[in-house]
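Dear all,

This email documents one entry for the complex benchmark we are building for the journal club exercise. For each entry we list the sequence lines for every component of the assembly. Then comes the predicted three-dimensional structure of the complex as a token string, followed by one or two observations. Please use this as the template for your own entries, and keep the labels exactly as they appear.
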Amino acid sequence: MNDVASAATLDPVTLAVIENGLQQVCNEMDLAFVRAAFSPVISEALDRSDGIYHRATGELIAQGELGLPVFVGTMQFGAKAVIDRAKDLAPGDVYIVNDPYLGGTHLMDVRFVKPFFYRGELFCWLSNTGHWPDTGGMVPGGFSANATEVEQEGLRLPPVKLFKAGRMDEEILSIVLSNIRIADQRIGDIKAQAAALAIGEKRLTALIDRYGRDTVETAIGELKARAARLMRARIATIPDGEYYGESYVDSDGVVDEPLVIRLTVRKEDTELHFDLSRSSPPCRGPMNSVIATTRSSIYLAMKHIFPEVPINAGTFDPLHIADPDGTFLYARYPRPVSGCAAEVSQRIAEAVFNALVPAMPDRLFAAPAGTSGNLALGGHDPARNRNYIMYVISGGGYGGNAAGDGLSNGCSTIGISKTTPIEVMEQYYPVLFEEYSLHEGSGGAGRRRGGFGINYRIRLRRGSARASMVMDHGRTGPRGALGGEDGGTNKVRITRAGRDYTPPHLSKDQNIEIGPGDVVAVSTPGGGGYGDPLEREPALVLADVGRGYYTVDHARAKFGVVLTGTPLGVDEAATAALRKARATASEPTAAQ
Amino acid sequence: MKDGDSPAAAGSIVGVDVGGTFTDLIAIDPRTRAVRVAKVPTTPDNQAFGVLAAIKASGGDPARLSAVVHGTTTTTNALLERKIARCGLITTRGFRDSLELGRRTRPTPYGLTGRFIPLIPRELRLEVRERMDADGEVVEPLDEAAVAAAARALLAMGCEAVVIHFLHSYINPAHERRAGEIVRALWPNAYVTLGSGVLSEYREYERGVTAAVNASVQPVLHRYITRLGDELKQRGFARELLVMQGNGGTVSSRIAAEAAVNTVMSGPASGVMAAAYTGRQAGYPDLITYDMGGTSSDVGLIQGGVPRVSAELELEYAMPIHVPMVDVHTIGAGGGSIAHLDDSGMLRVGPESAGAAPGPICYGKGGTRPTITDANLLLGRLNPKGLLAVDSPVSMQVLADAILAAVGRPLGLDAEQAAAAIIRVANDRMAGAIRMVSLAKGHDPRDFALFAFGGAGPLHAAALARELGIPRLLIPARPGITNALGCVVADLRHDYVNTVNKPLPALDMALVRHTLEAQIAEGRATIAREGVDVDGIEVLHEADMQFQGQSHILTVGLPGVDVSREALHQAFADAYWKRFEVALPEIRPVLVNLHTAVIGRRPALPLDALLPADGRARDLAGAEAGKRRVWFNADRDSGGGWRETAVYHREKLPAGARFAGPAIVEQLDCTIVIEPGDRVEADGFGNLVVSVQASTP
């Protein structure tokens, strides 16, 4: 099983050392970018990634361990798009590009791509992506809920050289800065993003100096082969067969009907074949996904399932994804796409989880909340006489799993970020948070229950503002698994001048005018339950009720546990009888 | 009776450090320069027994000790094992779940499972009406009756400690303080913690958890220290009992429990303090410290003789402890790290560890998977007779077979080559981690000397230094008891942080001065309250700064309380350029936090006495214990082989000895490996100073 004949040309220790060295180059780029960045989306939410890519194919060679998961797969497509268009390359050139259709995500994810020369010869490409807080368009922050063409979403840059032989092109810079909001701080992000690549260049040069160009080249090829082998070994543990999973996007933000992702996964030998072709057709609103994001979503889902497999192009070798032509998962110009990176990507990953959880019940989990919960509040603060854009990005519950209950308030499937503290938000923006609490009852019931979402309530203190949101799971909660119940749904309620307003599309809306004293209230989804709730130990249900996670009524209705008395205790006899009656009643459904 | 002629360490200052396996003690008599050491098993259920046993083993009479400085893992263990006090929370209405919801994270970037248990369970978290805004203005007044009712309810639910944690208390603590008065009037003990009292810094989750940590370990620490103090008193000890803190300073046992959170991570901190002290004396003020133990390694940074202190510790997933502590990073590689091949045939070392049980194969306690320690043994780097903690000796053949089976055969290597490969991969990973730690703080490791200690640190340090391009390596006199030494040499230290958060142009410089002066006054008052002899008081100031709009901070040193706006700006711009090579004249800097450390210097101790002068050989040959075959990886990156290598007794090395690698130096609890080409000199402070041959061409 551990045949290593192919590695005969390179000793195994050097290989391990070079693998570690390439990883370090990327980690150092990640670190420099985050520490120097201005965009809180990069510096706090870690919405960025740095990597090394093959000089001709753009294939992923190595990527930082703390890069945003959704960029794991996309950046190699982005690098390829630049390679195809690059000419007259010189050391110190840096391309800037954010075109979603050229291997991207949405416009806010701005990519820098830099040719890396070793002793005068092109050796590979270094690239990073960072989420800028704004790239123009009809809504501050870029998350339009009802754009119908990409031009409404913001400035679209094809690959152009922002740096030529190490010098910044001030003219291109001025075009960029003239087309985006709060432009004054972007120069800091641009310098940070370029400085990270320069640090990568230095470290990679040192690595090649030390081990020699040919040895590093050989190691890169070998590492790719080994990652593929490792992924294949993991896939081999899945029983052969065809698995089906689906998930729903509430709406596209324009037409109020759900979009369906229908995924068939066929496992054959050591390979997986993903077919999304029966999903909904392209949509009018911004919930279309570009192909790079669609593919990357499947990659990142598999990485969540097999986190121990290292990431390079080889990891993706055994994963075959048919182009989902004719669906909203293969968007072409000028389809609007601002929702794809943050929301559709997570629904695709969810379809993968839903499909494979019966195949690997010990490793997988019920569906996580899986929405980024983007809320943007753009307004004017009269007390400080300045405009602002405030983002709230929320977590939700994770799914129950064989090892235990789901985590509460975990971050999105595609992210690894932390929330901004309320004490920081209130320093910067004219708002008062009235509540930041656990969304009771939202964890899907199961033998292992889902984690809980959150509730928050924001009151505008002065001036006026416009609220926009791109969230999901307002219509249906994250799926339960193996008999577990779905998690609770996402809810948005805005109270204007004392009157409540609920967005017609539940989780997506834009430019809702609010004034002083008005309140935006959001509850985020809980995770899906795992296994039959009637099998949950009554003592755990009692503890959950004692903590206020569920009510006494929930205990009875969801878990078949009867709680009585003061202090509250489990009525064993009544619980046994109720569970027995419930099990009998549900048998026909379970057998379907 | 003369103090000086008793071997029983009369008048000594005693440092005792409690580790996971051993309790270490060092006693130094400043006048006679007599040094005694002891190593006894740790007594996990009550660490005090181990402490007393160590004092006894060192031959010390408690009645005649001048001070006992104690490094304890009581609070760290209590947290990690969740053996904490039942603690309640009174907080701002709408926010009782903030301590459970955290900062929206997961334990690892990939994989969507994991566990988090809040320190204070939900039913013990109560809310009251009150609210400040971000400017410290009252939005809603404090409901005082509700505070009293909440305190009574928590007592009725059996709480022993309580936290009062309100939003924005870092800017205006009035509500917290008033609530504190109300609760203290009702609470039967002193275990009442105010969020702003422990940490006057913004970020409600971090401040709240830090306060919750303090409250939940306060009763535990208080009981432990009281018991230890009583035991010592019964044995006639009448002087000062000091407790090590995570900031590398000590605090009187009389007030240690007030800020119990400060004692978390004091063990690693004391090791770094010993390194700083040793480095200052030996002329190496800039050090990277490397403490390698059985399951993990700790890395710290010292600049200008002062250990780097930071307030960003995360003790475990989602448990941030934001009081200033010596900045020590833990790497998941230690002697017990297991070597294995992954499914693609790549050699991996760790993160899985054989731990103390079963431990490495060579311990003979049932371990079957090869570890770093096993590889060291097979390669002759460790002496089979010198191993501590061995149950029944295992033959070299068994060891070789195990390494061959797990690593060698699948890779086409013989047992020795396989063991060498394990060492090389492990060193490479550790070097990478050290590089990341120093780079993350904006430093180039090549500007430092490496200070290696702990049971296994000196085994690997020479190779690590070479890998990192570090030119000098320092091995202290007693690598195995460095933490205990740190207790003895540590100063009193109290740290204060206040959030300012104002752009420089809008900054009130009088406020800066006032804040720093208030911090100094509080530190001086605390030191006075402790009643411990100090040689003098030293004050250090730092500022956390950033450019407006950033969220990460860069810390810069301040010359004094009278710093000018221009000087602040310049210091920050310089530090920023040094770290990122980026200049941003376009953007305004912001002063985020002001720090002050108030340090009560304790009398200096002689280090040259750590290795006794008697028993030294007259020349190098006299210190040689013999020769043995030791495997060294080659100077360049591949190959390697056996070398006939001289083995020296550390205790017998003559002062000023010089020799060249390859060499092995053995002492009671530690083995030092000197790589071929490196040169060693024994300095006048008991250290071996190794000049490391550069590795890169």
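Observations: Chain B has 16 helices and 35 strands. The radius of gyration of chain B is 26 Å.
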